[in-house]
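Re: that chain you flagged

S.,

Sorry for the slow reply, it's been a week of failed gels. I finally had a moment to sit down with the sequence you sent. For the record, here it is as I used it:
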Amino acid sequence: MSALAQESEGDVVVLDKLCKRFRGRAGSADIVAIDDTSFRIPRGATVGIVGESGSGKSTLVRCILGLISADSGRAEVLGVNTVGANEQVLRSLRRRAGIVFQEPYEALDPRMRIGDAIAEPLRLHSTLASDQIGDRVGELLEMVLLDPALRTRFPHQLSGGQQQRVNIARALATEPELLVLDEPTSALDVSVRSEVLSLLVRLQNQLGMTYVLVSHDLPTIRAVCSHIIVMYLGRVVEQGTVDQVLGSPSHPYTRFLLGSALSLDPDVKTAPPETRPTVLDGAVDRRGCCFAPRCMEAIPDCSTTVPVLAHRGSPSLVACLRAGE
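Prediction finished late last night. Pasting the structure tokens below so you have them in one place:
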């Protein structure tokens, strides 16, 4: 059984039937962003969440941390249910659970010097004196391989890679147990991405944190993560270890994602498995499998029966009626 399905007292995140909808435009159906999602994240793991744009990845992690209020279900983070939690509870939790956003410059206040940006969570969540906060800011800058002298600069005076390192330093300021990384390298130059990912891996080994990494880049997931969750239109369609899911994918959508990934060798031509053309729309009919309108392997039951995650002759958990045939 996948570690993401096993109950453990050491779980950092426990989701149970989490749901989130956004109101559609006048006269249109609501958009289903998260649909009855359940899984667990064990302490010390690095879990990658993958899927196309619109699959619900970023909404999911924001619901987990309470940045967006879920409609129903349970999202327990470090023993705290963030669904319906008040601001005082969430503020206390954010000392123990941090997040690094996709756009490094937009995550920083352009009017605030780098040192003040990193010091802000320390002033909010710690009892350190001013001189101790200053020392801690210098330590954090060195931890992310930046010169402490940069503390006097403004965000626009740094490169994109430096800005994201500052965001990482700020997220680490309160020594969190959980760090959510929402596409942390997608806005960076290719030459900088590997450096930032290597830094994140080193910091996890050094500090023993649990990572939740949102990414559309499968090579990144394969290189960094221990477990993977594949999402489509707000539902988890496959989950397991990276070797299980990417080495032997069981869901047609997972195979589609793998086939869509570009090879590093320009001479290798790849073509994703064929799918039916359709709009990626969270307002589609939810009675059956959410991937059925695009799936070339769909049978009539796929349009009426919602498949549950289960081992269907495969090492990973898969939500597909035809898996294992």
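What I noticed first: DSSP finds nine helices and eleven strands in the chain.

Talk soon,
D.
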